[in-house]
Specification:
By secondary structure, the protein is of the alpha+beta class. The protein is 28% helix and 34% strand. It contains four helices and nine strands. The chain has a seven-stranded antiparallel β-sheet with strand order 2-3-4-8-7-6-5, sandwiched between helices. A two-stranded antiparallel ribbon has the order 1-9. α1 crosses α2. It is globular, with a radius of gyration of 17 Å. The two termini are 25 Å apart.
Length: 209
Amino acid sequence: MPADHFAITVPRSWFELPVEPDRRDDRISALVQERIVEHRDLWDHRTEIVRVLRRFARSAWDSGARYCAAFAEPSEDGIVSGALTVSVLPAPAGSEDPLGSLTDHVAALGGADDGMHVDVHDVPRVGRVPRVWGVSTVQAPDDRGSFDVVLMQTFVPADGQVALVSVSSPATDLAEPLLELFETVTDTFELLDSATVGDPGPGDGDGAV
């Protein structure tokens, strides 16, 4: 099955974000306003939540992601936020063993960062696939220094392509529970038969875990 037809289930408290620039910012503002009607405790944080979600959506579009969902929840220390994206990448070339070649490629990526771990994980509706996870140091936009993020990236081979499910958050003090959450959400990922589905845009990923 091709990698560009997929489904994933995210918690109901997350926002499924439009990534295309056309009216993106207005649509995100409307999503937050709708959520505030149900959860009045978010009112005082609405401006910051909108700002965070717009940043995630812009980053997803810039990276070529096909899908983006994010969370931005108030806490005593400020907004705890994070984002999930699904991207479609070309598979590593020159191998008759796609999974083995991809696993070697992912291991090389993980080995470049001391804070990351590499393993092969069983995604229930997909099978065994390589992933990297841990606390990674990433470069800030415009070369404005670097910062740490909790990160899990899962690589699903499919018909000469790779579906990359990437989940991250800057809340490194919550690394352990966030990684458990990221795994739970990633484990809902599945590839769909292109003959039986339409456009796999926002909406295919809604739900609760």
